[in-house]
Write a structure and sequence with these properties.
Serine Threonine Protein Phosphatase 5, Tetratricopeptide repeat, 1% strand, 2 strands, mainly alpha, two-stranded antiparallel sheet, single chain, 268 residues, 11 helices
Amino acid sequence: MLIKDLLQYNLPNRTLICCGLVGISVLSGCSSIQFRDGSILNRPDEASDKSEQTGSQKKPTKSPEQTQQGSPTSGSNGSQQAAQVRLSPDPYLGSSDFTGQRRQDQVQLLKRNLQLINSNKLDQAQQQLSNLPPELQNSAVHYQMGLIQNRRNKPNNALKAFQKAYKLNNKNVYALNQIGIIYRKNGYFDQSRAAYQQALKIWPHYLTAWYNLGVLEELYFGNNQAALSAYKRYLLYAQAQARTTQSPPKELRLVDAWVKDLERRTAR
C-alpha cells in the first residue's frame, strides 16, 4: 500500500468493528507497550498497540514451562548481538519541530498541554492548541489534536489529525504509530500493517512499531514467522537500548517469552 493511499483513507461512518478506543497514548516519556499513553515531549506519543484481544479472544498467556527453549536473541548470544547494534537517534525529535528558541518555548507549552490531556481537561487543552499562531501549528500540535479526539472517542477525527501531523512532518513516526492503532482497532489490518512498516522505514530502531507489528502479525494475520521476526527485532534493539541507558523496557522479558513460545510452535 502506498503511503499516499494510507494518508487519504478515512474510516467509514459505521460502528467500530473491534473494541472501542481505549488507553490511546499521549506522548509521555516512556516507551512501553500496552495501549499506553506516551508523549511527544519527552518522547513523542508512544501508544503501543498491545492488543490483548481480537473480539473476545485474548492473547494466550505464556507459562514458564512454555518458555524454556533458547532464542537467538536471548542469553549471552543475544547480548553479543545487542552489543554490536548502534541505535539511530529519533529522527522526529531531531527535526525542525524541535529546533530554535521559539520551538523550545512551544515544546514547553505542549508539555503543559499534555498534562491537561492526561487530566482529561480536553476543552482547555484544545483551546490552548487553537490559540497558537498559524506558523506554530506544526506536526506536534496536530498530533496532540489527535490525542484529544481519541480521548473523545472520535476515531475518524483522530485519524485525520494524525494524518495531518504526518503530512506536516514525514519524520513523525509517532503519528504513523497512532494511525496504525486506529486502523487495527477498526478492522483495517492491511492499512495498520502499512502504517507500522512506514514508521520502521523512517526509524528502523523504533521499538514500539516493531512490537505493534509483531502483535498484529501474530494475532490478526496469524503469521507466526513474521511475528517472530518482528519480536526478535524488538528484543535486539531493546537489549541494545538497555546497554546504553541501563533502563530496559519493561516488556523485554514478556516479548522474550513470546519469542521462545513461537519458536517452539513453529518448530513442530
